[in-house]
Structures are given as structure tokens and as C-alpha cells.
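Review box. Two proteins, two foldings.
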Amino acid sequence: MKGWGWQGEFTLEAVRAHWNQVAPVYDGWNKAYDSTHFQRFEEGLKHLDLQAGMRVLDVWCRTGNASRYISAACPEAHYFGLELAEELLWRAHQKYPQRDFVHGTMVHLPFASASFERVVSLETLEHIPNPIQFLHEVHRVLQPGGRLVLSTPPATAEWMTALVDRLGVNHGEGPRRFLPSKEVKMLLAQAGFRLLLHRGTLLIPAGPRLLRRWGQEWLDEHVQGSFLAEFGIRQFYICEMAA
């Protein structure tokens, strides 16, 4: 890393190496910031609209924490987690041995076309050197009428993430490029998705619960749909396959 953020191009191999390196401390650090970390799963569940028998792909799944939320919300759904880093995958198997986790890359998903009714992708897009290739793969494995729930930080979050990386107060985000919401929407459309909802979240990611709740209420009531929503450090995109 140079300066205050990642500069230039990166590879999936570099991403894999980073997450293998931080795997031993990954869950410990996230537990220290649990309200911010686990918000991705709580918010994602609101938009998955799960039903019994649905096949749900979580890409990429890290240590499998989303499986706990999905299985609790709909025990009859069939969860599959895909992970790039072998060390994170091992920990997912150790924590949730009864669930299905597989190793693979995000640009060559090891599944047949039209395999899933739902795909959840939380904080993944920014770590992929060629994001449109990933989105095309998600489109390929979704069934007609399937839904993608995707979250990713906006470009405005880079300064905060780079500062956190420099201070060493968590596991670090590794190689990445945070995309402006306008670019994410363009890529989703190019990949064949129809955007149902775009929502900025986590205006205030830390601090007292009441302050964080006020920040989200302010986002929701006053600036959703405007450029100011870009300051929510986790942006959600709810999409369906375009007709």
C-alpha cells in the first residue's frame, strides 16, 4: 500500500494472499466492531425475501457468518458459501460444519448456470480487479427472476478505510477499489440486472447506539437518492435479472 489508499491495479491472487494472512484475526477483530460488521447481514436479510427450498449463494463468504443469519431466517433454504482464501474457508468449515462451503474464485463461479434463486454478495465487488466479469458470473448462476443483494463501500469511504489501515486498528481491507455508486449502477445494468433499490447505510459506523440510529434515520428521511447518501459507508443494491 502506498500513501493513504491502494494505488493502481491489483490481482485476485493479491486479494487471496491478504485474506489468508489476516484469517487468524478476522473474527476477533470483527467481534470488537460487531454492530458495524454484522449490520451487513441484518440489512441484507431484509431484502432477500427467502422462501423454503430456495438455493442461496453467498459470495464471498469469509468465515461463514452470513450462513447463521440466513439459516435462522429460513431453515428450509439451501445455503452455499463460496470463499477465495483457503484459511478463511477452513475456519468457516470449523465454525459451521453442517453447512456447504466451497473454494473458488469470484470470476469463475463453480456452479452450473441458473443454479440459484438468490445471490448475496457483501463487501465483495471492491476486491475484484474486473468487477463486470464477476457480475456477469452472478447473472449466469441466477435463475430467471432471481435476486442479487449486494453491498459495497462507496468511493467516499476510501479515506476512512485507508486511515484505519494505517492505524492498524483492524484486520485491514487489503487490495481494493471502492466504486462510486454511479459506476456500480452502470456495471449492474451492463451485466443484465434491473435495480430495485439503492440504499446508503452506516452514516455513523461507530459510537453510541442512539447516535448511530439517528444517523441512519437522517439518511433515510433526508438524503436517500441524493449524492449525500454516498457518505453512508455501506451501500446496498437490490437487483433482479432484467427481462
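Next protein.
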Amino acid sequence: MSTNKQADIRGVLISVSEGRILLPNANVAEIITFSEPEPVENAPDWLLGRVRWRGWRLPLMSFSQFAGWAPEKGTFGTKVAVLKALGNNPKMPYFAVLSTGFPRLVTVSTTNLQEVHDMKELPIGIYTKVMLNDDAAIVPDMLSVELMLDKALNQAA
């Protein structure tokens, strides 16, 4: 086995309005079909509500709205990616992100992933922009996203 193969990881490209999110496959717990979320009072537009999943009521976010790209609402056939939270918040071990299509498994290696350097300030919640083969994507700053979700839920409560 070559050293490049050892550096390969399995990733998931999640399509959202106006972009794609790249995450390690280990971050994705499950892909579920969209169902109308329970509204969260006084929540920002990007927090679409809560969806039920395996006994949890998960916050459902529109990453596209969160990043300021485009408004996004779920409809029949929309998918939802259930993500494992990294912040060790016992109240929020998972959260959900709206996806415009079925997320795609990809192989990520040092040869097919390149960081895109532009001098623009990245919005909160975005760690970096990348090109994976011919696909432009962003790598989210998961801890910032989780902190913003937690803050929005606490303010809405």
C-alpha cells in the first residue's frame, strides 16, 4: 500500500443551495428524509426548527442561510444529514443540516484536495474553501456552528 493511500479518508459532500459542504464520513450519523420541523420560537431564519430522530429532537439548520448564500426551505424529497456534534454538549450530541440532494461519498486524499486561497473574509462557521477534484466545497468549522446553534436555541427558549 502506498503512503498516499494511507492518507485517504472517506468524506461526504452535502449539497446545499449555492454550495457544498465537505465533512469526514465519520461525522455523518445518518441521512433521513425531510419532515416538517417543529418551529423554534424567536429563532434565526437559518434555524428551521427541530426534527425527530431516534428519540431526539434535533435542531435542523439551513447551512446555506447560515452562511448567507441563499434562502433554503425543505420540501418533499429533500434530504437531511444528521451530523455528530463535536462539542461534547450533552444537550446536543447531534444536529441536522438540510441537503438539496442525496449526499455523496467521496475519497479525500492529499492529491485530490486543494485549499482555495482567496483574500475574502470567510463567514463564521466556515473553516476553509476547497476544491475536491472538480467540486468546489467548504469545510465547516463545526465547533463554531455548534456554538451558534446552541446560542440560538438558548435565546429562543
